[in-house]
Amino acid sequence: TQNWNPAATPGTSDECVVLLANAKTPLINAASAVSKVTVQDTGDVRFSSGAFDLTVSGDYEIQTGVRTTMTVAGSDLLVGGSWIDANAAGPNGLDQGVGAGTVFFTGSGSNRTIGSEPEFRLFQVNAGAEYRLADGATVVLLAGGTFTTALTGTFRGGPAGATENAVPARFLVNANAGTTPWVHTAGGGAIDFDPDNSIVQFVGGTAVSPAVLPQNRPSAAGTVFYDLEIGDGATTTVFDTNGPILVLRDLIVRTRSLFNAGLPLAQQLSPELRVDIDLFSRGGLAVLNAIERIG
């Protein structure tokens, strides 16, 4: 208790501010519940001492240059409000190690958001919870991780009615070959990236062992995207046995890198085939250039 002001263990109604000025950074070594957490001034909150959960009924905010470290399996973070992480990719922000606990989002209501640039390895929108991407957010699922919507949970894109000139909200899904990074549990809820200016970009996988797009969807809801991108070098399998995948504007499969990779191969073929393969690759690139000019 010596690190807290006043000198007492925080309770369910307390809003906690974590500062570097404290002698020790908070270590979650017992099941705990507080109202709100703000990590600032290069502070750190660590889940590294046994399988103990921290429940935050309100917002969890990680300011620039600070972190929250999760290293123990079964030591989970449950957030009922919004998630604000001002750190881009790097050593700060949420440091969720391989095999560590899960971030569970538990709140309901249209005002719950996930932003600004967080990276998750394991996170889940719980049954009955409702979250959307914050305005202009870039939410990243790290390779080898899993994002889950449970039962009646709902995960939405950016704000409805955003202008075409607004910074899009983006969900970037990295996947190791053969993994299932995105699971929507059957039984209700929705994956809804319908709002304007929401982009889901899916990268990873190989031709032998492809990555997997959202699966196990309830038949009534399906999955709705506004813009869906299959990134450079990605091989993706769409499992569509329980509901439709609807793309309202653009489905973009990044093929430029494949055509560029194929150009040098033409020189290894016989002269009569070399011309055909070269023309095929250059023709494909010309089509892509034309599509991009049209917009």
Task: Record the SSE blueprint.
Layout lengths: L14 E4 L13 E3 L1 E4 L4 E4 L6 E3 L3 E3 L4 E4 L6 E3 L3 E3 L7 E4 L6 E3 L7 E4 L2 E7 L4 E4 L4 E12 L4 E3 L12 E7 L6 E3 L5 E4 L4 E7 L6 E2 L10 E8 L5 E2 L7 E9 L2 H7 L8 H24 L1
Parallel strand pairs: 1-3, 2-5, 3-6, 4-7, 5-8, 6-9, 7-10, 8-11, 9-12, 11-13, 12-14, 13-15, 14-16, 15-17, 15-18, 16-19, 17-20, 19-22, 20-22, 21-23, 22-24
Gist?
The protein is mainly beta. The chain contains two helices and 24 strands. The strands form three sheets. It has a 19-stranded parallel beta sheet that branches.
Description:
This protein is mainly β and 295 residues long. Helices cover 11% and strands 37% of the residues. The chain has a 19-stranded parallel sheet that branches. Strands 4-7-10 form a three-stranded parallel sheet, with no helix packed on it. α1 (256-262) runs antiparallel to α2 (271-294). The radius of gyration is 22 Å and the shape is elongated. 36% of the residues are buried.
